[in-house]
């Protein structure tokens, strides 16, 4: 298990370095008239947050039925499009790292 966790941490760090090479303006370009890179990373942050809650709740529930969420609305309400790219990718990295330490 420790080897798996180490590989995951290394993968997160590798992708953080790649994401860090994307400029603020490039990160804001909408892709396929849907989301920008900023909004995609924001969605991944939201997803990690929702899954973290699910992992915690699963320890106290007999059934594994969890509420869903409207990912488009979450991305819109969080206003990731206007967030600082560096801050977004740092949050993405840290949120994913902390899951491996729990």
Q: Which properties best describe this structure?
A:
102 residues, mainly alpha, 5 helices, 0% strand
Using only C-alpha atoms, the radius of gyration works out to: 15 Å
Q: Give the mean pLDDT.
A: 89
Distance between the termini: 13 Å
Structure annotation, total helices: 5
User: What is the N-to-C succession of helices and strands?
Assistant: HHHHH
How many beta-strand segments?
0
Shape: flat
Question: How would you describe what is shown here?
Answer:
With 102 residues, the protein is mainly α. It contains 5 helices and no strands. The chain has helices at 2-20, 24-27, 37-58, 71-78, 85-101. Helix 1 (2-20) packs antiparallel against helix 5 (85-101), helix 3 crosses helix 4 and helix 3 runs parallel beside helix 5. The two termini are 13 Å apart. The relative contact order is 0.17. The mean pLDDT is 89.
Q: Brief overview, please?
A:
With 102 residues, this protein is mostly helical. The protein has helices at residues 2-20, 24-27, 37-58, 71-78, 85-101.
Write the layout of secondary structure elements.
Layout: H1 2-20, H2 24-27, H3 37-58, H4 71-78, H5 85-101
């Amino acid at each position: 298990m420790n080897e798996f966790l180490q590989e995951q941490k290394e993968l997160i760090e590798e992708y953080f370095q790649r994401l860090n090479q994307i400029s603020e303006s490039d990160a804001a370009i909408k892709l396929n008239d849907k989301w920008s890179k900023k909004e995609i990373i924001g969605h991944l942050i939201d997803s990690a947050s929702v899954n973290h809650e699910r992992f915690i709740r699963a320890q106290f529930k007999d059934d594994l039925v969890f509420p869903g969420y409207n990912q488009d609305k979450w991305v819109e309400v969080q206003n990731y499009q206007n967030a600082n790219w560096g801050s977004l990718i740092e949050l993405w990295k840290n949120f994913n790292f902390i899951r491996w330490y729990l």
